Amino acid sequence: YFLAPGETLQVDAPGILQNDTDPENDALSIIIVQNVLNGTLTLQSNGGFTYIHDGSDSTSDTFTYKINDGAMDSFKTATVTLNIIQAPIIQISPQKPISNSSYHVSISSSGDWIEYHINSSAWEHYTEPFDIDIEGSYSIQARVKHNEDWLDASPVSFTIDQTPPSPPKNIISNPPENQCTSEVLHIEWDAGTDAQTAIAGYTYVLDTLESTIPNNQIDSTTLSFVGNNLHAGDHYYFHISSVDTAGNISTP
User: Fold this and answer.
1) DSSP 109-159
2) pLDDT per residue over 193-219, tens digit each?
3) What topology does CATH give the domain 169-244?
4) Locate the Fibronectin type-III domain: which residues (predicted)?
5) How much is the CA Rg of the chain, to the nearest whole Å?
6) In angstroms, rounded to a whole number, what is the distance separating the alpha carbons of residues 163 and 242?
7) Is 227 helix (H, G, I), strand (E, B) or coil?
8) Is 2.60.40 the CATH number for 2-84?
9) Taking the model in full, what pTM does it have?
10) Identical topology for domains 2-84 and 89-160
11) Strands 78-84, 2-3: parallel, antiparallel or unpaired by DSSP?
């Protein structure tokens, strides 16, 4: 038996007695050995029953019974399984809304026929996980067939951004370049830009090497930097790059 979360299942006679007989053709009664856990069961003497699921996330429920012919119980018990078809669950890896790498997409459901579509494309039959690696924004929807209806998943959206942002602009030092006479240096700049997502922050290095390239670990989300404990006679270079929300880094 199959039903949706919170749905009522009505099974008419002979129901669960359809495969039960007695050699003397005595009338059979049903004895519940173990009741359902995730809903309400109403059992009729003729074998029919009504089951109301409690709407939880359970994927199945069961009840076990035996029969009696008025003189003795059956030696064996029988178990009825009620399969709860939950709406599909869409899972993505990495589990974040913005990335500069590909996404792995999988869809699971207790139902047999799952369909999905990406953005505004047509519905497709889902058979196996798939990858998306082309830059852009995506919204994935999924559904599972139940009788003549569909159970919809919660959509999942993400963006692949593989384009580096622009570097910071108008970098100004105080004191001005080549005029530092103290151990403290103040540097300010204008924000970089990113066409696909947004600037998350800035990575920078102040050192005595001309060719240093900063990594993509964000050092600041503001537009200024203060360098302390500078040594007289040393020549310093300030290397700075923008980092976007996908993890892409600009040229220094």
Assistant:
1) -SSS-EEEEETTPPPEE--S-EEE-SSEEEEEEEEEEETTEEEEPPPEEEE
2) 999 999 999 999 999 999 999 998 999
3) Immunoglobulin-like (2.60.40)
4) 164-252
5) 33
6) 12
7) strand
8) yes
9) 0.76
10) yes
11) parallel
Q: Who's near 245: CB < 8 A, 6+ residues apart?
A: 98, 161, 194, 197, 198, 199, 200
Q: What is the pLDDT of residue 100?
A: 97
- Distance between CA atoms of 87 and 89, rounded to whole angstroms? 7
What the block records as the tokens of 101 is 């790498």
Residue that has been written with the tokens 């302390």 in this structure: 228
The Cα-based distances of 28 to 23, 72, 156 in angstroms read 11, 10, 52
Fold for 89-160, please state it.
Answer: Immunoglobulin-like (2.60.40)
DSSP characters over 197-222: S-EEEEEEEEES-TT----SS--BSS
Average pLDDT, the chain: 94
> Which residues lie across from 147 on neighbouring strands?
none
Is residue 63 within 8 A of residue 50, CB to CB? The reply is no
**104, HSE (Cβ side, Cα atoms, 13 Å):** 4
Closest CA to 203 of 243, 176, 154: 243
Tell me how crowded residue 90 is: count the other CB atoms within 10 A of its CB: 19
